[in-house]
Specification:
Layout (H helix, E strand, L loop, with lengths): L1 E15 L6 E12 L5 E9 L11 E10 L9 E10 L26 E2 L4 E2 L6 E2 L2 E2 L5
């Protein structure tokens, strides 16, 4: 997924990998994915963060590319995003003119490789379409 996202409600987490003594740190942010049909889906962004790193302030816009896990129960379940490259838009998010300096790209772009396994179904919003795709974890 590529696009601009508003980030909020940061939470820093310590993660352990089973069988290893190494610890990794991540920050998790709430965001949303807006579609061209005006449907909005809740999402959570997980970003690697060094120990004691400064978190991104609430309502900050960021340009990012992320791996996405889109559950089959969408729009009920949250879309999970794993940040690959996250670049914070500079400036004060509370400023009335802050959005004037952000490119007008309201909808993220989704790129995926896989095999379509079913006919498209119309989602509850009456406009969006969904279909099953089989893909591997890494392409």
């Amino acid at each position: 997924v590529f696009g601009f996202f508003a980030l909020a409600n940061e939470e820093c987490m310590k993660m352990f990998r089973p069988g290893l003594s190494a610890v990794t740190y991540h920050c998790v942010y709430k965001t949303t994915i807006q579609c061209t049909s005006s449907a909005v889906f809740p999402a959570m962004l997980c970003v690697y963060s060094p120990f004691n790193n400064v978190t991104i302030p609430d309502n900050t816009m960021a340009s990012m590319s992320a791996k996405a896990f889109i559950p089959t129960a969408i729009p009920g379940d949250t879309v999970l995003l794993e940040g690959i490259c996250v670049a914070v838009v500079p400036g004060d998010p509370a400023s009335d003119t802050h959005e004037h300096f952000i490119p007008n790209l309201p909808y993220p772009m989704v790129v995926g490789w896989g095999l379509v396994t079913a006919q498209a179904q119309t989602l509850p919003d009456g406009m969006s379409k969904a279909f099953g795709v089989i893909s591997t974890d890494y392409v």
